[in-house]
Amino acid sequence: MDLPKANDLKNEAGYTEPYGAVTLRNPLGPTVSNPYFIFGGDPMKPYIFVDTVTGQVHAGN
């Protein structure tokens, strides 16, 4: 998945607020998981995570 696709999925999920930073992260542990894009940059708003394999979108810290 590329960044424009991840941004489209984020917007389709209802997270349309502007963001100041994007990180592509591939967690190493403690459990195996998919890489994901993390949209953020505003400390007053939650981070938005987009799974690069499944396309699932969720908010979190």
Could you give the distance between the termini? 22 Å
Question: What's the number of domains?
Answer: 1
The largest sheet, given as strand count, sense and whether it forms a barrel, is: 4 strands, antiparallel
Helicity level: 10-25%
Strand arrangement across the biggest beta sheet: 1-2-3-4
Topology as H/E string? Answer: HEEEE
**Overall average residue pLDDT:** 94
**Structural class of the helices, strands and pairings?**
alpha+beta
- What's the count of strands? 4
Question: Beta-strand percentage?
Answer: 25-35%
Q: What's the short version?
A:
This protein has 61 residues and is an alpha+beta fold.
Describe the model.
- The protein is an alpha+beta fold and 61 residues long.
- The protein contains 1 helix and 4 strands; from the N terminus they run H-E-E-E-E.
- The chain has one domain (3-22, 38-60).
- It has a 4-stranded antiparallel β-sheet, covered by helices on one side.
- The protein is globular.
- The model has no long low-confidence stretch (mean pLDDT 94).
SSE topology:
Layout: H1 3-12, E1 21-25, E2 36-40, E3 47-51, E4 57-60
Antiparallel strand pairs: 1-2, 2-3, 3-4
What key phrases describe this protein's structure?
61 residues, alpha+beta, 1 helix, 16% helix, 31% strand, globular
